[in-house]
Task: inverse folding
């Protein structure tokens, strides 16, 4: 299951065609649904079911968005979609609400995969209910693959013309601000360490979307946005893995994920 999900994530990051992107996403998602419920205890089964149901809705939303974009452009290759949009006037594009709706649905579908607010409902229960090594894998690998495919899709297909990139850049800017606020505020009162890191992961998605929001504003912002996103993503992966390794080491001795039980562990 880990190999299948990793294969799907690698395909997500490498492909430049809508149908292939969807297949790679589903290969990843189905493997993760099973992996989350692997222990078959009540907590992991509940987390797996919630993840499956919400993930199915997100997949349907994403597929509908892709269908709208294909219906408007007649293309599934990201580069060809960009060529069609560049050849059209802003008035012609804005006169086709199907395209705008398709882009919004793509944001919603991908937003679920990266745990962006308000598509984050699955994160706390899944992080709390599954074994810590699987939580670490989910928090790092799936988020990295999700941001890789978002950057590829929106930069390759919708990066030009610039006025269009400003439209979806504004969406990511709003989601970023909401995510940073909601994730950090709700993380404060948590009593379960894995649940707290789940909300922290939501906040980190907000920080990462700042880089996405910058892409398309100007040539300089393109470079800074992409490079800062990739740098922060690498730093997030290392820091998060370190945090979960510490949790695994301590929780194996304590047999508890409650923050209060971690008191005095450094003595």
Result:
């Amino acid at each position: 299951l880990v190999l299948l999900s990793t294969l799907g994530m690698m395909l997500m990051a490498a492909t430049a065609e809508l149908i292939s992107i969807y297949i790679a996403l589903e290969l990843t998602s189905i493997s993760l649904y099973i992996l989350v419920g692997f222990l078959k205890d009540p907590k992991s089964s509940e987390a797996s079911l919630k993840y499956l149901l919400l993930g199915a809705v997100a997949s349907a939303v994403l597929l509908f968005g892709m269908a709208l974009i294909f219906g408007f452009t007649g293309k599934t290759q990201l580069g060809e979609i960009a060529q069609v949009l560049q050849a059209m006037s802003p008035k012609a594009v804005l006169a086709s609400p199907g395209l705008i709706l398709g882009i919004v649905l793509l944001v919603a579908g991908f937003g679920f995969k990266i745990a962006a607010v308000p598509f984050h409902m699955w994160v706390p229960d899944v992080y709390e209910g599954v074994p810590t090594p699987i939580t670490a894998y989910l928090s790092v690998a799936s988020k990295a693959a999700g941001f890789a495919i978002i950057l590829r899709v929106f930069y390759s297909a919708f990066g030009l013309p610039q006025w269009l990139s400003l439209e979806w850049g504004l969406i990511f800017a709003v989601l970023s601000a909401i995510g940073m606020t909601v994730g950090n505020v709700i993380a404060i009162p948590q009593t379960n360490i894995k649940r707290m890191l789940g909300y922290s992961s939501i906040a980190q998605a907000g920080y990462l979307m700042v880089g996405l929001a910058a892409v398309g504003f100007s040539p300089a912002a393109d470079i800074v946005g992409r490079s800062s996103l990739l740098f922060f993503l690498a730093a997030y992966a290392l820091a998060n893995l370190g945090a979960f390794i510490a949790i695994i080491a301590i929780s194996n001795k304590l047999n508890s994920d409650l923050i209060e039980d971690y008191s005095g562990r450094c003595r």
About this structure: The mean pLDDT is 83. The radius of gyration is 19 Å. The first helix runs from residue 2 to 14. The chain has eleven helices and no strands.
